[in-house]
Specification:
Elements (H helix, E strand, L loop, with lengths): L1 E10 L10 H15 L4 E4 L33 E8 L2 H8 L2 H13 L8 E7 L6 H14 L23 H16 L5
Antiparallel strand pairs: 1-3, 1-4, 2-3
Helix pairs in contact: 1-3, 2-5
Length: 189
């Protein structure tokens, strides 16, 4: 059995902990709770617990590792996230619905537009944990070579058997309804 990893990366316009980014940091707890309550969610870096992994204190590698093409400004602050999901439809539904979708709509307020992909996905074995360096390396691969089974995006996804994937739109819609239901009914941090 395999699981999907999603690695996201963005470069802040201003230093990460500045007042300028308060709107972003204030929304993080809601996005995290939304993810944790989403169908198909398995785990994320920074968790104090792990549902399916033995080592409950790991942070999945050095958070300062970035892809080689990341243009660092005077401050060089980035927001990176690494999460683990049962399937592509689950992470897609979470990404484009609920609290996370709201943050995506506002990303231009906090983050610079890069000439690199904002995220990459890939499959790992059920008993493996991804690390930040894997995300950086696979983002580089997606940037350099386009979508492949090794590093893909939602526009050109692959399944766990390295075959092109046609996402199940009905499954996505069912997951979106769950995500939005949690949002409407006060799933808050």
């Amino acid at each position: 059995m395999a699981q999907v990893v999603l690695y996201t990366l963005a470069s802040f316009k201003e230093p990460q902990h500045s007042e300028y980014n308060k709107g972003f940091s204030d929304r993080n707890p809601f996005v995290y709770v939304s993810a944790e309550n989403s169908p198909g969610f398995v785990d994320r870096s920074g968790q104090s617990w792990k549902r399916n992994h033995a080592d409950c204190n790991r942070d999945w590698g050095d958070r300062s590792v970035n892809p080689r093409f990341l243009a660092t400004g005077a401050h060089g602050d980035t927001a990176a996230a690494l999460s683990l999901w049962d399937d592509v439809e689950s992470v897609y539904a979470f990404t484009y619905a609920g609290f996370h979708a709201e943050v995506l709509k506002m990303r231009g307020e906090w983050f610079s537009k890069g000439d690199y992909p904002a995220y990459v996905a890939w499959w790992i074995a059920y008993d493996e944990s991804p690390i930040q360096a894997d995300g950086a390396e696979r983002l580089e691969q997606l940037h350099d070579n386009g979508p492949t089974a090794y590093a893909f995006d939602f526009k050109s996804p692959f399944d766990a058997n390295d075959q092109t994937l046609s996402m199940d739109r009905q499954k996505i819609q069912q997951h979106v309804e769950v995500v939005r239901s949690h949002m409407r009914h006060g799933s808050n941090a």
